């Protein structure tokens, strides 16, 4: 896996502070160890989705601990994240995807039907 500044932050903290809470939201807490391990699993799965160093991956969802995990995962393999504004209309989102040549789009629940994903 490629090293990056973002990925190195957690990689360096996990051994020192593994059981300490790194992220808290309304529903759960993630420790530094989990925030290092979970993105590792995601980073290993991403190349199977045809993304690699220098490729672009779009992300469409509200802010959550999962987006932080995704940021660390893509940083580990050198993929460029393209955050998309969930307030945009379907045509605007398509323009962003086209402009940035994103190979993969990861979208949260509800965005596919709301924005017409899967329609010809």
What's the quick description here?
This protein is of the alpha/beta class. The protein has 5 helices and 5 strands.
Secondary structure topology:
Layout (H helix, E strand, L loop, with lengths): L4 H13 L3 E4 L4 E3 H14 L10 E5 L4 H13 L2 E5 L5 H11 L3 E4 L3 H4 L6
Parallel strand pairs: 3-4, 3-5
Antiparallel strand pairs: 1-2
Helix pairs in contact: 1-2, 1-3, 2-3
Describe the structure.
- The protein is α/β, with parallel strands linked by helices.
- The protein has one domain: 3-Layer(aba) Sandwich (Rossmann fold).
- It has helices spanning 5-17, 32-45, 65-77, 90-100, 111-114; strands at 21-24, 29-31, 56-60, 80-84, 104-107.
- It has a three-stranded parallel beta sheet with strand order 4-3-5, with helices on both faces. Strands 1-2 form a two-stranded antiparallel ribbon.
- Helix 1 (5-17) crosses helix 2 (32-45), helix 1 (5-17) packs across helix 3 and helix 2 (32-45) crosses helix 3.
- The N and C termini lie far apart (36 Å).
- The model has no long low-confidence stretch (mean pLDDT 81).
């Amino acid at each position: 896996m490629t090293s990056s500044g973002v990925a190195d932050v957690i990689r360096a903290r996990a051994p020192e502070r593994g059981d300490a809470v790194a992220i808290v939201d309304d529903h759960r807490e993630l420790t530094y160890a989990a925030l290092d391990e979970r993105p590792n699993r995601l980073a290993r799965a991403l190349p199977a989705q045809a993304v690699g160093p220098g490729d672009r991956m779009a992300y469409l969802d509200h802010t959550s601990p999962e987006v932080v995990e995704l940021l660390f995962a893509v940083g580990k393999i050198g993929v460029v994240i393209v955050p998309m504004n969930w307030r945009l209309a379907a045509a605007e989102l398509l323009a962003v995807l086209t402009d940035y040549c994103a190979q993969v789009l990861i979208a949260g629940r509800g965005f596919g039907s709301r924005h017409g994903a899967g329609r010809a």
